[in-house]
Amino acid sequence: MKFNKKANLFILIFFTIYITILLVLFFRFESVKTGDNNYFVHDNIELIDALNKEVTSIVKMLELYDKNIRSKIFLTANFVEYALFAPANWRSFGATYPFPNLIIIAPSSVDKNMVFRNGKENNIRKLSSVIAHEIIHVLINNKYGIIRSRFLPKWKVEGYADYIANESSFDEKLGLEYFCAKKENDSPSYKYFKYRKYISYLMNEGYNFDKIINSEFDLKDLEKETRLALCLNS
């Protein structure tokens, strides 16, 4: 475990240095400081303030929210640029690096509030929701520390981030159909959909995020309980 923690920390530091070099040496973004965050964009500068207001409206009510934590958010122009910034997450909508609260977003349309991932299915989400999702990762890192955050169960972290963002890339109606019928789907998108439903169920049961993090769950039992609550009401 000690080796794994050191290896993960090394990887984080390596990629942070790698990204910083890319930002400084190879790419030129326009910087926009608005609200609690700094945005770095190629165009649509005049629309960033409105975008950030929508992002802030999503995250400001969180128990983890801290207005003094400022993220650096880069909106990439194309899939090649995004892959250079996020080589380990090149098929995702966004990536977060803890040093120093750096968020990289896949190609997006600011005026349409949409972001696109490099994939054939489940490849469109709301831009403001994805940025909020990544900011939640920043806030979790700040709350629990970088090392501990790396080893938190994925379903808790990703489920909470999508729960607060109030969406997943997987179609809601189809997701409920699969979930309630106990159909299998191996896509990461569907897994995130289920994670969000687990968190939603626990929140409705009176949990907050800190209690979820510090509680032990049997995922099979949790899925049964979530299905029972969700599918009877759908």
Explain this structure.
By secondary structure, this protein is of the alpha/beta class. The protein is 52% helix and 13% strand. It contains ten helices and eight strands. The chain has helices at 2-25, 48-59, 79-85, 127-144, 146-150, 154-165, 172-180, 188-204, 209-213, 219-231, and strands at residues 30-34, 37-41, 72-75, 94-97, 102-105, 108-109, 114-116, 124-126. The strands form two sheets. The protein has a five-stranded mixed beta sheet with strand order 1-2-3-5-4, sandwiched between helices. The protein has a three-stranded antiparallel beta sheet with strand order 6-7-8. Helix 4 packs across helix 6 and helix 8 (188-204) packs across helix 10. The longest helix has 24 residues, at 2-25. The model has no long low-confidence stretch (mean pLDDT 91).
Helical content class:
40-55%
Low-confidence runs of at least 5 consecutive residues: none
Biggest beta-sheet profile: 5 strands, mixed
Mean pLDDT: 91
- How many helices does DSSP assign? 10
Principal-axis shape equals globular
Strand arrangement within the widest β-sheet reads 1-2-3-5-4
Gap from first CA to last CA: 42 Å
Instruction: Kindly provide the radius of gyration, computed on alpha-carbon positions and rounded to a whole number of angstroms.
Output: 18 Å
Q: What is the β-strand count?
A: 8
| Content of β-strand | 5-15%
Looking at how many chains there are and whether they match, the oligomeric state comes to single chain
**Broad structural category:** alpha/beta
What's the helix-strand series?
HEEHEHEEEEEHHHHHHH
